Amino acid sequence: MSLDRIIDLFIYLVCFGICLYALNGIDFARFMRKGRTYEVQVLYFVLSLALAYLLGNFMMVIMGR
């Protein structure tokens, strides 16, 4: 694994943490039906991954990678 790949992975992991923290402020349970906690957790995880990917790509473009 090259150093560039390790840096990219680190950027994505940091962005994933930031997205998890940011999505913590949204009450997804209010938008979902009662008793659907598993679906809310899956939605939360998928949104975090998608936002982390977008944010990570944005950061790499800004840095010129």
Structural summary, described in words:
By secondary structure, the chain is mostly helical. The protein has one domain (3-63). It has helices spanning 3-23, 37-63. α1 packs across α2. The longest helix is centred in the last third of the chain and has 27 residues, at 37-63. The protein is elongated and about 45 Å long. The two termini are 17 Å apart. The model has no long low-confidence stretch (mean pLDDT 90).
The strand count comes to: 0
Low-confidence stretches: none
Number of helices: 2
The shape is elongated
The portion of residues assigned to helices is: over 70%
- The chain-level structural class is mainly alpha
| Proportion of residues in β-strands | under 5%
Mean pLDDT: 90
Give the terminus-to-terminus CA distance.
17 Å
Computed CA radius of gyration, to the nearest angstrom:
15 Å
The ordered H/E elements are: HH
List the main descriptive attributes of the protein structure presented here:
65 residues; mainly alpha; 2 helices
Give the SSE map.
Layout: H1 3-23, H2 37-63
In short:
With 65 residues, the chain is mainly α. The chain has two helices and no strands.
